[in-house]
Amino acid sequence: QVQLVESGGGLVQAGGSLRLSCAASRNIFSINTVAWRWYRQAPGKQRELVAGVTVGGNTNYADSVKGRFTISRDDPKNTVYLQMNSLKPEDTAVYYCNLAAMVGNYWGQGTQVTVSS
To answer: How far is it, in rounded angstroms, from Cα 57 to Cα 40?
Structure first.
């Protein structure tokens, strides 16, 4: 079993920045991790993929966050980050990290990000 613990959410004004962190309770290579991903879900909307990074280092981003958000990994710490700059009110959502591994698919508990106008 793998637990993911997220941190870094909060309230920020439009144009501001936040960095989300998500730490796994086990060595990600011991469970044959394929990729880390960040998703978000706004009230009344479906959960959407925000960004992803494979163990090989390939990244992908939703069009709505390209150029503003950056996903990165710290493998020795079994942690993934989401740096969010130039935040907009429409970025307001609960953000979830996801770890896709050969042995399973794991989710964090979610962290609230609120961007005020």
So the answer is: 21
Can you tell me which residue has the tokens 């730490």? Answer: 23
C-alpha–C-alpha distance, residues 60 and 24, integer Å = 21
C-beta of residue 107 within 8 angstroms of C-beta of residue 5: no
Q: What is the distance between the alpha carbons of residues 14 and 85, in angstroms, rounded to a whole number?
A: 10
Separation between Cα atoms, residue 70 and residue 30, nearest integer Å: 25
**Strand, helix or coil for residue 75:** helix
Q: What is the mean pLDDT of each run of 10 residues along the chain (117 residues)?
A: 94 98 91 93 96 95 98 95 98 97 93 97
Distance of alpha carbon 16 from alpha carbon 109, whole angstroms: 24
Sign of CA dihedral 77, 78, 84, 85: positive
pLDDT at 29 (0 to 100): 84
